Amino acid sequence: MHRITEVTEEFYGGSSSKKPFNSLEKLEFVKMPEWRQWHILGSGEFPRLEKLSIANCPKLMGKLPENLSSLTELNISKTPLFDEVELFASQLQGMQAARIVKLSIVHCNSLTSLPFSILPSTLKTIRISRCQKLKLEQPVCEMSYSNMFLENLTLEECDCIDDISPELLPRAHKLRVQHFPNLTSF
After folding, report:
1. For the chain, what are the domain ranges?
2. Which top-rank group of organisms is this from (predicted)?
3. CA distance 54 to 35
4. Among 51, 58, 150, 181, which has the minimal tally of Cβ within 10 Å of its Cβ?
């Protein structure tokens, strides 16, 4: 899998009229160092996909599938898909039909901001780890409604985060903050 540069129609079974991966519930792409593009058919592939993980795919750019109505968990690690906040926002907006309850973003080192207002209201758990340039952004006017849904937040080793406001998680059941050398306010 180290030499794959594109995931094309062949991955979905070519020109078959049958919907591809009709029963697939979990999909992981791991250690694909040359993968650059995922060609999306847009014809309802992965109708039962609940968990999508993409890890160690450093050259992957572009979009994720959008019609993932069963998706409940999305994990991105060491992959530039979410490095730009605008791209991150458009990816999540494209998945609005999904019922994502768990989001994990790890080693996305160019991601500089994460406005909680763009997160889907179905989201209950977020884990953000080793995103070295990330700052949490939450304008006061958005605080009252945009993140009322979050119950669990794990933040680990994000060097640029220096302030964690309690208003970020009014319904929090669990908050884990680990290794923040620049944290000045909590």
Report:
1. 6-178
2. Eukaryota
3. 11
4. 181
Domain 6-178, CATH number (from 3.40.50.1000, 1.10.3720.10, 3.40.50.1980, 3.80.10.10): 3.80.10.10
Alpha helices (H) in the chain, listed in sequence order: 85-94, 143-146
* Global confidence as pTM: 0.83
- The residues, ordered by sequence, that sit 6+ positions from 172 with a Cβ below 8 Å of its Cβ are 150, 151, 152, 153
| Amino acid at the residue 152 | N
Residue type, 174: K
| Residue at 14: amino acid letter | G
DSSP conformational letter for 168: G
Beta bridge partners of 105: 76, 128
Amino acid making up residue 43: S
The amino acid present at 33, given as its one-letter code, is P
How far apart, in Å, are the Cα atoms of 154 and each of 78, 90, 104, 105, 173?
18, 23, 9, 10, 11
Per-residue pLDDT of the chain (186 residues), as tens digits, is 788 898 887 787 766 656 778 899 999 999 999 999 888 877 778 889 999 999 999 998 877 887 788 899 999 999 877 666 666 767 776 666 568 899 999 998 878 887 777 777 888 999 999 988 888 766 444 444 555 678 898 999 988 888 777 776 777 888 888 988 888 877
